[in-house]
């Protein structure tokens, strides 16, 4: 985090004072493993706080939920309770997940408390500006609050994708092509199956599918081009296999072009804010010089242009990638059929 990014967050209302910090949740004194419905370890643990702390902490967590969901209107407190706080020891951010339950109807919602990180903030903002979905989050010093992104975890979805009917399989493969495109344009890395969810919407004679990233730690950090292409992760092979089964090169290229057009339209509709964000990225250090050199060389070879070789940091590389998209000079890998 630097002063430019801090100013950007403040200008766009993303900085707010919170009654609790990430480090406050580390005061738990007990924890038990959280198992799924089949008794498998989820890599999360449910944490418990001392009687002296629990009242203050839970009240603060309800206030944070109100800030995230109702712009701070605390009238919702009366029928909300903190049902559970979970802690994940797996991954970079080591997040806390807070479950909020509505006593009136037993419906529940979640949000996450994480440590602030520049790459994660840039990832959230680019997702908000360039994807089909909006993202809500709050930053306060070293603490990041993120809304829960609903959907079926990608790795769970993979186990059922090949058993649905052919019409749904085609739609799943189509959406993965588009998701692959979105990640590569804005350089969001590490999108293997457990870092995204699949949102299913029933439709006439089948389902519509939307793949949504849920982990933004690897925004423009890695030096390898393939790291930004979900098609190259073996964890995603079940969907890749659907692409082999149902698509040819012309179909894939059509879906890639459709998604590039949509991304370009989103960039143009938020041009001022997107330019502001990219200027902040260009003045931020979010990766090592070695990785910057590697990525600019690989993208230069991929796109057949020397413009990447002049980039000094990851922000400039992302900007150049987006400019190629806007000029319709962006070249994609031959999705599903080798590169």
What does this entry look like structurally?
With 339 residues, the protein is an alpha+beta fold. It folds into two domains: 128 residues, no CATH class; 175 residues. It is 43% helix and 19% strand. The protein has eleven helices and ten strands. The strands form two sheets. A seven-stranded antiparallel β-sheet has the order 1-2-3-4-5-7-6. The chain has a three-stranded antiparallel β-sheet with strand order 8-9-10. A hairpin with a 5-residue loop joins strand 4 and strand 5. The model has no long low-confidence stretch (mean pLDDT 92).
Question: Could you give a short description of this structure?
Answer:
The chain is an alpha+beta fold and 339 residues long. Helices cover 43% and strands 19% of the residues. The strands form two sheets. It has a seven-stranded antiparallel sheet. A three-stranded antiparallel sheet has the order 8-9-10.
Question: What layout of secondary structure does this protein have?
Answer:
Layout: H1 3-11, H2 22-25, E1 30-35, E2 41-48, H3 51-70, E3 80-88, E4 96-102, E5 108-115, H4 118-130, E6 137-140, E7 143-147, E8 152-153, H5 154-161, H6 166-186, E9 196-203, E10 206-213, H7 237-246, H8 249-269, H9 271-282, H10 289-303, H11 314-326
Antiparallel strand pairs: 1-2, 2-3, 3-4, 4-5, 5-7, 6-7, 8-9, 9-10
Helix pairs in contact: 4-9, 6-7, 6-8, 9-11
Shape: globular
How would a crystallographer describe the biggest sheet?
7 strands, antiparallel
Helix content: 40-55%
Number of H- or I-type helical stretches: 11
List SSEs in N-to-C order. Answer: HHEEHEEEHEEEHHEEHHHHH
| Average of the residue pLDDT scores | 92
Total separate domains: 2
Uncertain segments are none
The beta-strand count equals: 10
Structural class per helix/strand content? Answer: alpha+beta
Tell me what portion of residues adopts beta-strand conformation: 15-25%
Strands of the biggest beta sheet: in what spatial order? 1-2-3-4-5-7-6
CA distance, first residue to last residue? 36 Å
What is Rg? 21 Å
